[in-house]
Amino acid sequence: MPGWARIITIALGTFVVACFGYDFVHYDEMFSWFSCLAVFVLALGEFGEFARSGSFNNIKMDSGFSETVSVLSFAASVIGIARGWTSQASHYSCYQPVGTNRWKIFLCVFAGLLFPSCFAETLCLAIETGTVNDQAYLATQNYDCIGGLLAAVLSSAWGRFG
Predict the structure, then answer these.
(1) Range of the domain at 152
(2) Please, what is the Cα angle at 126 between 120 and 131, to 5 degrees?
(3) Which of 58, 81, 83, 148 has the fewest C-beta atoms under 10 angstroms from its C-beta?
């Protein structure tokens, strides 16, 4: 599917969901996380096999300007992903009783963003470092970006499960 068609598909899907209102969005969010978790756990298992095969090396990090920029860039991407959800945090607290402690809501939203974000970012970082020793991973990452790299990790899993 060409890129423009993917954009239109996502836009139309978002528009249809938005037409049903926030009640539908909240109902959908109760279940939609499971498919993402399943893909990430499957990727973790598949990449774990790659890591245990001896092809994965922990890349030694030097010090200096370029390493500092790399770490800060990665940190900015992690913060940016979680930051996108902060505008919607008020919607997740709308079903709470009026007297609910603000700290309880804050800690629940914080934990709900922290743990999935750290899991996903750490997994993706580990998979990305696998491109150093695996030319197939590197080729798919160069050709199809991160989506191709995830497809390469999951390709053997789809053969067994799909």
Answers:
(1) 35-52+63-161
(2) 130
(3) 58
For the record, the structure tokens of 6 come out as 């993917």
Contact 141, 131 (CB under 8 A): yes
The verdict on residue 82 lying in a domain is yes
pLDDT > 50? residue 135: yes
15 within domain boundaries? no
The DSSP output letter for 151 is H
Average predicted confidence (pLDDT) for the chain: 77
Written as one letter, the residue type at 133 is N
Q: Which pTM value belongs to this model?
A: 0.63
Handedness of CA 118, 86, 25, 90 (dihedral sign): positive
Residue 10 maps to a domain: no
Domain membership flag for residue 1:
no
- b (16+ CB within 10 A) / e for 91-130: eeeeeeeeeeeeeeeeeebeeebeebeeebbebbebbeeb
Q: How many domains does the chain have?
A: 1
- Three-state secondary-structure class, residue 10: helix
